[in-house]
């Protein structure tokens, strides 16, 4: 069952494109990473899912229901965090959380908020005006989670959190997902997407470039060879490395060659020349993702 379905979702800000013709489905039980560079359209997409802004065209269905009609009945099922959160500065964290709980018909004691606050070392008795960026983020996260929703839609939930807190938070997402919560979140922390998510989508310049199952991404038969030849300088041309990988890169003395299958052949070619260092590894999601962008861009340039 699709918990989120976006149909040709498009948003223009005047002449600027927010996103264009995004078609994306999130299934029940998915933990779905939504990644892309600054200005790609992640927040625009998420803001439309949360009805903080409206599509120029296209539509969204949540739990099989068209968003514009059914939103009130869905509210209880969805937990959200938008990238910018603003609060009344004179209130304490606890007062804000009480208010949020009440809006879902709950008292704070009925929610897991105390447990979460402890996990995130969040002091809810302080006034918001004294909060650091990280504390404001934690408050936003607690607000989004306290009613134990079935679906989480989160825009960069870990930005502003220190690495330890990021880890605790991703751990919590993992636990919630194991208990059946569907999660759709944007992030720039690609290493976590790689570890946590079963699906991932890449967006750039408002266009969805690719949606993959993590197993497909991980199972890609690609290896990155990092090699330093004894003879100094860029050897891509001279040693025919571009024949192996037309997108081979050369930075700070190291050649980066991506090989799809035929590793044996590639190595035979490389070791014809004296080398001082070599390592072979699977590409990280970040490398796959950057390569993907580079290739699309150079394909576009050559047209
Ligand atoms: N309120 C707005 N008015 C005009 N243009 C906007 C507005 N909000 C976003 N945009 C534009 O829409 C595009 C997508 O922006 P968006 O904020 O969705 O990107 P993002 O992927 O969330 O980026 P980041 O990683 O920096 O958060 C950008 O070109 C941005 O300038
Ligand atoms: Mg954003």
TrEMBL record:
SUPFAM superfamilies: P-loop containing nucleoside triphosphate hydrolases. CDD domains: ABC_DR_subfamily_A. Keywords: ATP-binding, Nucleotide-binding, Transport. One of its GO terms (molecular function) is ATP binding. The keyword Transport applies. Coiled coil: none annotated. Pfam families: ABC_tran (PF00005). Residues 4-230 form the ABC transporter domain. InterPro entries: AAA+_ATPase, ABC_transporter-like_ATP-bd, ABC_transporter-like_CS, ABC_transporter_ATP-binding, P-loop_NTPase. The keyword Nucleotide-binding applies. SMART domains: AAA. PROSITE patterns: ABC_TRANSPORTER_1, ABC_TRANSPORTER_2. Belongs to the ABC transporter superfamily. This is ABC-2 type transport system ATP-binding protein.
């Amino acid at each position: 069952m699709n918990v989120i379905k976006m149909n040709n979702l498009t948003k223009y800000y005047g002449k600027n494109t927010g996103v264009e013709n995004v078609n994306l489905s999130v299934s029940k039980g998915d933990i779905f990473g939504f990644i892309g560079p600054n200005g790609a359209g992640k927040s625009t997409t998420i803001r439309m899912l949360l009805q903080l802004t409206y599509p120029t065209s296209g539509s969204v269905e949540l739990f099989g229901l068209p968003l514009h009609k059914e939103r009130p009945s869905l509210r209880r099922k969805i937990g959200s965090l938008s990238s910018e959160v603003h609060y009344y500065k004179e209130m304490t964290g606890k007062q804000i959380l009480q208010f949020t709980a009440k809006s879902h018909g709950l008292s704070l004691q009925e929610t897991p908020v105390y447990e979460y606050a402890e996990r995130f070392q969040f002091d809810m008795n302080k006034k918001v005006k004294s909060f650091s960026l990280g504390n404001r983020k934690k408050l936003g996260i607690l607000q989004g989670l306290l009613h134990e929703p079935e679906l989480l839609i989160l825009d960069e939930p870990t930005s502003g959190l220190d690495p330890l807190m990021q880890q605790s938070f991703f751990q919590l997402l993992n636990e919630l997902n194991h208990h059946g919560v569907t999660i759709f979140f944007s992030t720039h922390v690609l290493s976590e997407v790689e570890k946590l998510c079963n699906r991932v989508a890449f967006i750039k310049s408002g266009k969805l470039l690719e949606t993959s199952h993590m197993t497909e991404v991980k199972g890609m038969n690609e290896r990155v060879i990092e090699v330093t030849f004894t003879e100094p300088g860029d050897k891509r041309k001279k040693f025919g490395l571009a024949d192996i990988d037309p997108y081979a890169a050369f930075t700070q003395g190291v050649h980066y060659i991506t090989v799809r299958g035929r590793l044996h052949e590639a190595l035979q070619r490389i070791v014809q020349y004296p080398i001082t260092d070599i390592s072979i590894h699977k590409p990280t999601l970040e490398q796959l993702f950057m390569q993907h962008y580079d290739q699309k861009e150079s394909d576009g340039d050559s047209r």
